[in-house]
Amino acid sequence: MYSSFEQELTKIKEEGRYRPLTVWDSAPGTWMTLNGRKILQMSSNNYLGLTGHPEMKEAARQALERYGAGSGSVRTITGTLDIHDQLEEELAKFKGTPATLVFQSGFTANLGILGSILSDQDLVISDELNHASIIDGIRLTKAKRSIYAHKDLNQLEAILQTSGSYRRKVVVTDGVFSMDGDIAPLPGIVGLAEKYGAIVYVDDAHASGVLGRNGKGSTDHFSLHGRVHIQVGTLSKAVGAVGGYMAGEQVLKDYLIHKARPFLFSTSQPPSVAAACLAAIRILQRSEDLIERLWANATYFRMSLKQMGFDTGSSETPIIPVIIGDPKRTMQFSDRMLQEGIFAQGIVYPTVPMDKGRVRFIVTALHTMEDLQFALDRLQKAGRDFGLI
Ligand SMILES: *Cc1c(COP(=O)(O)O)cnc(C)c1O
Questions:
Q1: Is residue 237 annotated as part of the catalytic site, yes or no?
Q2: What pLDDT, in 10s, does the model give residues 112-125?
Q3: Is 26 one of the catalytic residues?
């Protein structure tokens, strides 16, 4: 019964892609313990260090006491508690959109939204580097699909120009791309979408809490308020808990409540999680201190790497890849980092092209100057040993 599974695993092992899970024995943070050893964490999406924020922990504790461990149902039956409603209201105010709808995760938000707005009468146009949850969301539908080269507005326009008549044309892009840390050319995308009558859909998973005023996302970053139809955000990365959401018009919210299958058929966020998310949105709204520190750290780290001679690709956010190329050498470099006491994930083919293997560093607001210097010193030494610089 299991031999076919074993065969596939053997193939993964032969390709050097087999990875046992790394089990951490401490809370998320900048220094974490792995088998009793202190390791500098540089691969977490906990951009602002909010996972351990005292106000979020307290909000979660209070909600746990008041409501219990779970919501008991999907949102459309008995699983919408006042705390879920309150989260959506404050989130909409924060985002500056008429409405938001919260899902269990960013992944289910993309599946639910794309899965219900696209049919065989529609066209979806997607950046080639979009996230797996976008790809899977599109796969759930019978929509005609076109993929454009990464951030290539000329190709996007050519597709829009030659596309026939559809009920809906939807252009989908990540706001910040997770492998390269570059930002989508949203003003250009919006301009083309307006010219050709298309819906703009931006997935701000890595921009939520990171980009824009108070971390409002890429639409705010580019001052495109009211011109991006569907903004997807995550509550799982910088926001520090778990969840995903759609921010947009009330009509879209009403539509998704009746159509989005993960919303209809999967139990809502535990109330303690919704409460933690609500606390996080309040923290973001109150002050930009953490976000400013995040960007100062990211700029310092990227500039230092560049000065040393590393190739950081097209990074312009706290996601900073060190491009190495060959998959095997990439994984060796990542292993070397771990020996040196730094966790930075190696990312290789097929996630990225064969010659574009990279070790991806993610800088957070809580990294101190000493932390970053610790990493930079070890990177410089390893970079020389590997002939990268
Ligand atoms: C991480 C990520 C998601 C998934 O978000 P979760 O809340 O972790 O499920 C969706 N889209 C993009 C672009 C992401 O990077």
A1: yes
A2: 999 999 999 999 99
A3: no
Q: What is the pLDDT of residues 315-347, one digit of tens each?
A: 999 999 999 999 999 999 999 999 999 999 999
Q: What is the DSSP string of 216-264?
A: --HHHHTT-TTT-SEEEEESSSTTSS--EEEEE-HHHHHHHHHH-HHHH
- The CATH number of domain 54-284 is 3.40.50.720: no
Q: Which distant-in-sequence residues (6+ apart) come within 8 Å of 130 by Cβ?
A: 172, 173, 174, 203
- Domain spanning 12-48+288-385: CATH 3.90.1150.10: yes
Q: What angle do CA 53, 233, 230 make, to 5 degrees?
A: 155
Domain definitions of the chain by residue range: 12-48+288-385, 54-284
How far apart are the CA of 205 and the centre of ligand 1, in A?
Answer: 5
Cβ atoms 321, 43 nearer than 8 A: no
Alpha carbon 239 to its chain centroid, in Å, reads 11
Q: Is 221 a catalytic residue?
A: no
Catalytic member of 43, 105, 146, 178: 178
Matching residue, tokens 């040196």 = 340
* Percent with pLDDT over 90 in the chain: 95
3-state secondary structure at position 85: helix
Q: How far is the CA of 103 from the centre of ligand 1 (A)?
A: 12
Residue 361 host element (H or E): strand 357-362
Residues 186 and 222: beta-carbon distance below 8 Å: yes
